[in-house]
Structures are given as structure tokens and as C-alpha cells.
Amino acid sequence: MRIYADESCTQANDGSFMVIGCLTCDSETASDLRREISRLNAKISKQSEYHFSNISKTRTAEHYKELCDIFFDFHSQKCSYKRGLYQQKCYRKICFDAILIRHEKIDHHKFSDGDSQIGFFRFYKTLLLHVVKKHYCNSEFLITIDEITLKKTFMLTDLQHQMNAQLGSNSAIAKLQKQDSKADSLLQMADVLTGAVAFAWNRQECNPNTRNNSKLLVVQHIEARLDRSLATLNHPNRSFNVWQLEM
Predict the structure, then answer these.
(1) What is the pLDDT of residue 40?
(2) pLDDT tens-digit map of 1-29
(3) Which fold is adopted by the domain 2-244?
(4) Residue 70: which residues within 8 A CB-CB, separation 6 or more?
(5) Which of 48, 49, 227, 228 is the most exposed place for a label (fewest CB within 10 A)?
(6) Contact 23, 189 (CB under 8 A)
(7) 203/173 Cα distance (integer angstroms)
């Protein structure tokens, strides 16, 4: 299984909520998704990356809608096999999970010895453990997160060991790596969906301008495909799930 994760609004002045989101799918679906994204890029002669923060014009928003349509075309298809450590079910071919963390409740001095990066990775661990348990099916996980500058190079390895220890397996998570999103279109897709959720929850704090109006078009398109608002919480076993961390 593959997990691709990214974060949005990590600073308090970005809005009330930090959001960490991830895509989950098997390796075959990941390859199929990359192929469809490559076709979209060839069609629109796109050279740059997809990032929610880069949506600035209505024309650009239309390209991002098509990227989201690729996600939902696969999301509409169910897998033929069941997964889940505790409650097994046939999930969609690709799923999305996002965790909301309210900035005003974050206290790194109290909970992380004043180290904001330790606190940040604890949030990451909370989401990733939930997703691995949700999609576990006797196969190893390869987890890729967007590039981040680490104060200590062993932090990702420590996170992997901690998660495997809590899962009771030394191999459930075969690899946890960081990757520049330029090299991975699925990290870019995770960025767009995570950014859309962050925008929906922090929208009242955004200044109304053309750039934000274009982003709103993409958010509304995602909501139309989901048939619900992104600014709502869902059941944890949903295949498109947004939930808030109780601090």
C-alpha cells in the first residue's frame, strides 16, 4: 500500500486550523493515477507543479478541477479486496484522510519540550497510524511525505520505528521517506486536496480577492463531486474523511 501526505496552514497566522492530509491506494492504482495525470499535463501543456496555493486564475482553476476529477474517477471505484486492521471493508481505489489541528490548542512547550518539530511529527503520527490501521491488509506500507527540513536527520526513522512498535510489527511500515513534490504527482494531488480542506475551514479568515475566488471554484468543484461540504467532519471509516484532533 502507498500513502502520500502533505500539510497546509502550518503557521498560526495562516488560519485557525492546521491540516495534514494524505492519499492512500495500492501500488497499481498509484501507477494508473500517475499515467492519467501525465495525460492531463500533456493535454494542457503543463510544466509546473500542482499546488493549491498556486491557483490564481479562473483558467488555472479549470486545470485543477480536472486534476480533482482524476482523483474522483478512481475514488468512485471500489477495490476487490478488503482492508482494515479492526473493521475490514472494501474501500475505494483511492482514499483521502485529513486531520484538523486547532492552532490555539497547540502547546509545544507543554507537550513537546518546546520543540515544534517534535509536536508536528506527533500530529503526523496520529494521522498516519489511523490511516495504516484503517487500510492494513497484510501488505507493507510505503509512506511518502512532502519535503520538509529536519532539525535532526533521524526523525523520520524514529517516527517509523514508533509507528511499527505501536502496530506490533517491525515491517508494517517498510519505509517512511520525504520527497520533493516536483518528483511525485501524487504528492501534488495530496497537496491540492489538503489545501482545499484547509481553505474550506479557514475561508472566513481569507481576504476576498481574485486569487481566493479561483481557489473557491476548485473547493466548490470538490464539494460537488463529494456531494457535501469540505467544512464538515465525517465518520473515520469514510473513504474521504476529515476529522478534528481533540487536544
Answers:
(1) 94
(2) 999 999 999 888 889 999 999 999 999 99
(3) Nucleotidyltransferase; domain 5 (3.30.420)
(4) 33, 36, 37, 40, 189
(5) 227
(6) yes
(7) 35
